[in-house]
Design brief:
Low-confidence stretches: 1-7, 23-32
Number of domains: 2
CATH superfamily of the largest domain: Immunoglobulins
Order of helices and strands: HEEEEEEEEEEEEEEEEEE
Mean pLDDT: 87
Number of strands: 18
CATH class of the largest domain: Mainly Beta
Largest sheet: 6 strands, mixed
Strand content: 35-45%
Amino acid sequence: MFSLRRVTWSGLRALAWATLAGFAATAWASTPIKTLEPPKHFDATDGFNTGIRLSWNPSPNATYYDIYRSTSRLFANATLRAVSKVKRFNDRQTNSGVYYYYWIAARSPDRTSDIVGPVRGLRGETARFLMQPQDVLAPEGTAVDIVTKVAGFPTPKCEWFKGSRALGKSHHLSGTHTPILHFNKLLPEDAGFYYLHIYNIAGGVKSRPVKVEVILK
């Protein structure tokens, strides 16, 4: 004797939903997880005295960015420098005058992107005076130098001023864009106050005012 069980509509619906759920789970499990897009326009700045600034365009669905650093171009020598949640990072643990190389990868809880790089960055050092210029008192017609010593990285640019006027090279004046201002022949109209402005991308500074006095013949 065989016994028949009564099949209800609610039972059929439950069976159908269970079957569909099983198919969906199987399809999801067989679908490969796509790799995240790597960050684009990864860049490093040169010259800032507060560190090397890194920036990039964000990757869709990324949660974190892993930043690697080395002092060589080989990624094999790189170590993880930082993990950032935002699209920028200022690496303050650097030395001026040293080239650093960086790589980056986007990451989420279950995915990671390809590593991109390297980009190269260089920390600067603010322009400064190692020796300030001294006042000048000399006879008319003599050759005179106003001497300074400067430092900084990149090498500071120099610009001499008399009062508020920038000096240009003339028949008796040279070195207007160097640390040493040279008068080939001191003239009465050269008397006055001078200063040197030095600067680079990391910052700039002016020298002390220099008084030039000419002893007339």
